[in-house]
Fold this sequence. Notes:
Elements: E1 3-6, H1 12-24, E2 28-33, H2 40-49, E3 54-58, H3 64-73, E4 81-84, H4 102-128, E5 134-138, H5 154-174, E6 180-185, H6 202-214, E7 224-226
Amino acid sequence: MPVLxxxxxxxxxxxxxxxxxxxxxxxxIHACCRRPEAAAELAALAQQAGPERLLVHxxxxxxxxxxxxxxxxxxxxxxxxxxxxxxxxxxxxFGGFGTTDYEAFAxxxxxxxxxxxxxxxxxxxxxxxxxxxxxxNITSRMGSIxxxxxxxxxxxxxxxxxxxxxxxxxxxxxxxxxxxxxxxHPGWVRTDMGGQGAPLAPRESIAGMRRVIxxxxxxxxxxxxxxxxxxxxx
Length: 234
């Protein structure tokens, strides 16, 4: 049975990933979120699925010690798909030039770029022992330098561009171990982060990303895909 380890699983895209992989069947899921006691929908899915299919772990990805502790707790578990979904976009990230909140900037870098790298470093042996050997980082088209024609959003854009570069380097460094690393743009989705004016429903976005993930192999490693399978320029 393939194994998925997912961060940011309590709402939005992460919760929909859990739903759809459970619906697909055949997966064992480790779903991580900061406060499992407050994640009612995730808890309900876990109760319905049972511990053989879905386990919920308390994990704040900004706490690197907690990441190391979880990796140790799951030491014997191969991870076929490490899916780094947790991320932040705050109101403070919307400001233009001259309004930068540098504490928020550093916090966004820690969560959006540093934490996925830490997760990969902590779980690389788990991934290497698996059959699929996939590391997928959820990014944004707003992290594309080539696609930036409107400016602004300095904190969010920069942190996602950093995540893209982290993933590109990981793809090269981990290729000898047969590990495939990509970044995925989920589209503009109706979630707490994307807002209710977004054109995509979470179910459509996640279904598309799952199709992309299912087709991944070493030849796709180091690339930047949208949820519909199209490639995005760096």
